[in-house]
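## Example pair
The file below holds two records. Each record gives the amino-acid sequence first, followed by its structure token line.
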Amino acid sequence: MNRMKIGVLLKDYKKQEGGAYSYYNALVEGIAAYQFHKDLEFVFIIVDSAADKSAPKKNYVIEPAKTVERKHFFLNMLNSIAKLKGISYLPLSGKIQASFQKKYNEEIKLKLIENEIDIVYSLTPYYSDLDYPTVVTHWDIGHKSTYVLPELIYNHEYNSRSDYYKKILPKAFSIFCESEAGKEELCRYQHINPERVHVVPLFPGNIIDIRLTEEQEKELLDKYGLSGKDFFIYPAQFWPHKNHFNLVMAFDIFNKQYPGTKLILSGGDMGNLKYIKALVTELELEECIFFPGFVSNEELHAFYKNAISMVMPTLLGPTNMPPIEAQALGCRIICSNFAGHKESLGDGPIYIDPLDREAIFKGMENHYLNKDIFESTKVAHTTINDALNAINNAFLSLAPIRKTYPLNFGHLKILLALWLFSYPSFL
């Protein structure tokens, strides 16, 4: 009875999702391999049927998603249609999605209780209310902490975020943040008891473990017409908050004084790529600003190892994974002057106001003029093991609270209903 069983929610993340994909996969692999305290048992729960291909093979896995899709086949089909672009915001679509989500959550709860899961853990922000003890992961509160940007405000995004922070997050059993700065920001904006918030430090992805020879690095650079220390790199999806606009404007200043250097803007299009490419054309920078799209981990590794520096003037924090990865690989950094960046990166980077083009230019100039005397060396950084140690300690501290009530407390009605009516239903 003293042992606490934690169910880790597995979802389907694509490589094109960038940092979220790297973080999630590294953490799943880490949890599967880590030796947790004897009073903790971690199992995996597939809440997204497409996630079964990434589920660890050595751990106990529960699959409520397949049960839902089998028992509620017709409603599942309607839900898939209701979520299509252009249809999803229609009133009837909303009702169908809500009805399916209710069935989905009820089945998940039944599986959780059947398998004696004490508490569930979402490795990334989880927007579904399971009405079950849940530890959620918090990344940012951008719709309040930064500027009025379209991806945070429009197309119902602001309402969705507000509902999450109003209805889901306050019910979380505990919240895991990536930094003390993130914890402080969350508690300040949402008036959450800081004792319910634990820091699980952000760590670099598996990219830092890649091993390439000099010949392999050269081959990858040759693919893009690059050579060592003749380019800057900014790996970021093309969202407005990534602030490519002001970086390009700063590079225009730089290029006029130091022609011949290149800027690599890698990442997928999230709606802003055409706009940024038009700016590059207007400034006549097509020959020195490259858009390679989504690149492989090997290519990004080679970029980090050979760039003059990584430049990341993002408007959204307080933490980000790319600077941690770059620093771990010995790449110099210019990044936004967020408290979370300073906490995780220390004194190494040049910190800039991301809206100050002159400051971005000065940072690039500093690294460019000193590129020949800089020796690329790896520096100490937060590791996946640091994060797993923090997770272990956090759940040990939560166990005495969670064990104050039984598994089925508050769920007797839903259990009875599911057992009595466990046949395929539609709406």
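Second record, same layout:
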Amino acid sequence: MIQKVSNRFSYLNALICQCATGCPKELATRLGITERAWYKLRDELIHDLGVPIAYDPQRQTYYYTEDGELLFQFRRRLTNDDMQKLEGGHGYSFLASLNW
């Protein structure tokens, strides 16, 4: 079941990123859920998780109103020992380049 949910989120993200969701009914069919279930999921994503999703009725597609992506995953936190082993590059400051 978890794999099915993960796949559904990945597919939903891909469709939204490509602006290829179709109307709500078409999207629900693509996700293998009812239109009512899609609206419930959409509301939970927006209101509970703060996912910035909007619908464009002229293009008949959902899109993200902010740059980003929807992920369904577990991320391990690095321990202090792991953090000490990391090496990084040098950052570039735009303001520093302007001598501000």
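Notes on the second record: The first strand starts at residue 53 and ends at 56. DSSP finds five helices and two strands in the chain.
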